[in-house]
Design goal:
GIY-YIG domain-containing protein; six-stranded parallel sheet; SLFN_3-like_DNA/RNA_helicase; AAA+_ATPase; Helicase_ATP-bd; 20 strands
């Protein structure tokens, strides 16, 4: 039985004072409140609700907010209120009806007594607010949306929060000293590199735009950066977020367009950075391993553009120059987020370039590692285990508790299971390696993949495919899914990866690989890619696909010997 109530009143001084006098808990008790106007919402918590709301009435930023809703519960304490505040901020940001006015001040994921029991209360509070019109979508719909998953309003893990705190401290020290800096953050799939990148963008914007009349909690992890002096160091400070993958870039642009203090124009491709006349004070590069070296680009005009940018920035078209060089030339400070084992094409940065970035940052003590697994609901060793299975170095079978990891022998069963999970939880998709040509690109009525009598099509769009209406009935390629979360992934391992009994490990079959740029030799650099070279990319592709599902991964394998090999480990 719930014990909370939600008090609603017009947000002005007369109504606030009337509310303050009706219950002692309004003066001295932990409460959570939401202030909303036509297009904006602000969520806060305080042990002295009436006093805090009076302060908000004096804030210019909140002058347009017209309604107050205060959650009062006799069982609430400070920890519960901080958790509920964070929960509601994330829900509002994910719903997208209102722009959220809150600042990022470092709320990290925290545990407390009976936290699981309070979740039922949070759900009931959400539903009451939804019935009042503050939310337009259900909680599962919100949690499955890109607006929620890519929102800057996230509870950070301890290693994420620690990295953000140290990075921002170092950045302000560098700004005060007038020195440049280069930082590298490493993390396996699911450790939240993109979350950190977006969080940093929002945090720096909030500090830059902070003012003296704002009320900022003094006990949050990053609240010290909102004290006098920091804002001044960021005046005129130009920040950009570089995202190499087109699909992920478009999704982040949409999030930025709905977030106060951020703008979609801040989300850039490497070519946009290289081609701009003006420079940046800071460039944050997500999925930096997907930056390109000089190689055959995905579209013909980009090859000429690559050369033109080299000439404009360096005076010559030196083929050894990479997009990393563009980033460094166009900015004074850089933050690179990398995972070298997610490079999936020959045009991606060479392994030695990624290693050089990491080693340079480590030597400067500007290297940070994210270890906590946020995506897959298995333990933190799941990613390493999957990679060891793919490269043939696995020695011991592992189990992963309640995580739903299955090897499925029939393609029809795979399709049925994914459809069931889509109805139950949403965000269940089939994905595959590039082991079939993309016929439906020119024939949308045809099919690309036929397995066990099941006919399937590749993704009909390569931008924001995961959220498209047709995606539950299609198969996504690596280029549509890298950087995204799913609840359940149905992974089809094609015959581009097969098992060699003599070698005792998976190998690459070039004749069964159809990525148009997946095997292209690098004429500019004089590199001819062997099957073992491409094998590494293919293993990385399947490593990415097999680590998309948060709740489960179902695997169908085309090559019979490979299926038998995987059966020993899955």
């Amino acid at each position: 039985m719930t014990s909370f109530r939600i008090d609603r009143f017009r947000f002005d001084r007369a109504n606030l004072e009337a509310w303050a006098g009706t219950d002692p808990k309004h003066l001295n008790w932990p409460v959570v409140y939401a202030l909303d106007g036509p297009n904006h919402v602000y969520v806060g918590e305080s042990s002295r609700g009436a006093s805090r709301l009076r302060q908000h009435l004096d804030s210019k930023e909140k002058a347009a907010l017209r309604a107050a809703r205060v959650v009062v519960d006799p069982t609430f304490n400070k920890s519960v209120c901080l958790d509920l505040e964070s929960f509601l901020i994330q829900m509002f940001a994910g719903d997208g009806t209102f722009s959220v006015l809150n600042k990022n001040i470092g709320v990290s994921d925290r545990d407390y007594y009976r936290r699981d029991d309070y979740q039922a209360t949070f759900d009931a509070i959400f539903e009451e607010l939804r019935e009042a019109g503050l939310f337009t979508r259900t909680m599962p719909e919100i949690k499955n949306s890109d607006l929620f998953k890519l929102s800057p309003f996230k509870e950070l893990t301890e290693d994420q929060a620690g990295a953000v705190e140290v990075i921002v401290e170092g950045l302000f020290e560098d700004l005060a000293a007038g020195t440049s800096s280069r930082i590298v953050i490493q993390g396996a799939p699911g450790t939240g590199k993109t979350v950190v990148a977006i969080y940093l963008m929002k945090l720096l914007s909030d500090i830059q735009n902070s003012s003296e009349d704002e009320v900022v909690e003094g006990d949050e992890r990053l609240s010290d950066f909102f004290q006098p002096g920091y804002c001044e160091l960021l005046q005129g400070f130009r920040v950009g977020l570089v995202v190499p993958q087109q699909s992920l870039r478009r999704s982040i642009e949409r999030v930025f367009s709905k977030t106060p203090g951020l703008h979609r124009s801040q989300v850039l491709s490497p070519f946009q950075v290289g081609g701009r006349a003006e420079g940046f004070d800071l460039l944050i590069v997500d999925e930096a391993h997907r930056l390109n070296q000089r190689a055959a680009q995905a579209a013909g005009p980009l090859n000429r553009m690559f050369a033109d940018i080299n000439k404009a920035l360096f005076g010559e078209d030196d083929v050894q120059l990479t997009q990393v060089d563009w980033i460094m030339r166009k900015s004074r400070h850089q933050i690179f987020l990398v995972d070298g084992e997610q490079s999936v094409r020959p045009a991606d940065l060479a392994p030695h370039t990624v290693r050089a970035l990491v080693e340079s940052a480590r030597a400067e003590e500007r290297h940070y590692v994210l270890r906590s697994q946020m995506r897959v609901k298995a333990d933190d060793d799941y990613v390493a285990y999957i990679r060891s299975v793919l490269d043939g170095t696995v020695t011991e079978r592992r189990e992963f508790g309640e995580y739903d990891l299955r090897l499925i022998d029939d393609a029809g069963e795979l399709q049925d299971e994914i459809r069931k999970r889509e109805k139950e939880a949403g965000l269940a998709r089939m994905v595959a390696g590039f082991a079939w040509p993309w016929k439906t690109k020119n024939d949308p009525e045809g099919f690309d993949i036929e397995l066990d009598g099941v006919k399937l099509r590749w993704n009909s769009t390569d931008v924001d495919w995961v959220s498209s209406k047709t995606s539950p009935d299609e198969v996504g390629s690596i280029h549509t899914i890298q950087g995204y979360d799913l609840n359940y992934a149905g992974v089809i391992i094609g015959r581009d990866l097969r098992f060699d009994p003599e070698l005792g490990r998976p190998v690459f079959d070039r004749k069964q690989y159809f990525d148009p740029r997946g095997t292209t030799n690098n004429r500019a650099l004089g590199i001819v890619y062997t099957d073992d070279d491409i094998l590494q990319f293919v293993r990385n592709i399947y490593g990415v696909l097999l680590t998309r599902g948060m709740l489960g991964t179902y695997v169908y394998v085309c090559d019979e010997p490979l299926r038998a090999y995987l059966r020993r480990w899955l």
